[in-house]
What does this fold into?
Amino acid sequence: MSEGDVAELTGTLSPYLCHCLVSRQIARHVSRIYDRHLAPTGISAGDLAIFSFVANEKTIAITDLAAMMVLERTTLLRNLRPLIEAGYLETARDPVKKRQHTVSLTKAGEQKRREAQTFWLAAQEEFEQEAGQHNAQDLRGRALHTLGVL
It folds into this structure.
């Protein structure tokens, strides 16, 4: 892409000036790569993200998980339901905070997470080859910084 092409893409009122639009486009593009690679496991990139967050915490409050994933609680609950029904996750009431519910991985969920690792690595490699390893890592680092994680 030449300098003129870039200028045309980012001209006055160009949709490509919108951070939200471009962020959503890259998110959809990357999600497609990961979902395609993870398809043989029967879980999506979003499912694997849930498994990963839960595995890191062992047991986590659903409200805390929603915050970590930057999701509305109701959206997270919709995403959890099929994983609970499949036997990958289990919920319980927090023993201290009775009104709070927690989620944890079952043995089947941990097995599914391990099964998905090879497919996830292939997706990582594909995206890094496409974007360039340094660019992919830089993009992730900048995004995590923007989210306040780093």
Remarks:
- The mean pLDDT is 92.
- The radius of gyration is 18 Å.
